[in-house]
Amino acid sequence: MHSFGKIVEVIHRQVIRDAYGDETVTVTGIDTHYGCAVAPRFPDSVESSQLAEPTERYRSSVIVGYTVFLPADATVGAYDRLRWDGEEYEIDGLPGDWSHPMTGWTPGVQVSARRVTDG
Questions:
Q1: Which of 2, 8, 44, 73 has the largest count of CB atoms under 10 Å?
Q2: Which tens digits make up the pLDDT trace of 29-42?
Q3: Of the candidates 62, 74, 85, which has an alpha carbon nearest to the alpha carbon of residue 111?
Q4: Where residue 87 sits, what CATH number does that domain have?
Q5: pTM, to two decimals
C-alpha cells in the first residue's frame, strides 16, 4: 500500500434484528490494515443555508466524511466500522472493489466513511 499511509482497523460487526425490530450488535472480529490512504470528502456544492452554524456561512468547504482506500484483500461489509487515529467511523454506502477489466489488477477497496455519532 502506501509508505506513509494510516493504520486502519476494520471492525466486523453482525447486526441481528428480533421480531420487535430491536437490534443486537456483535463484534465478530477486527482486521488491521497498514499503509491505507484516507482522504476527506467534500459535498458537490454547499448552499450557505445548508451549513449547520451561522458562523460557518462563508466557509468554502465542509468535510462530510472520508474516502478510505484499503488493500485488495480487505473484507468490508455494510455494517462494519473503521477505526484510525483513535476515532471510529461507520461505512457510508457499499464498498467498491476496484479491478482492471483487461488485466485483472486489483489495486484495492474504496470505502466511504463518516464519523460515528451514536456512541
A1: 8
A2: 999 999 999 999 88
A3: 74
A4: 2.40.10
A5: 0.76
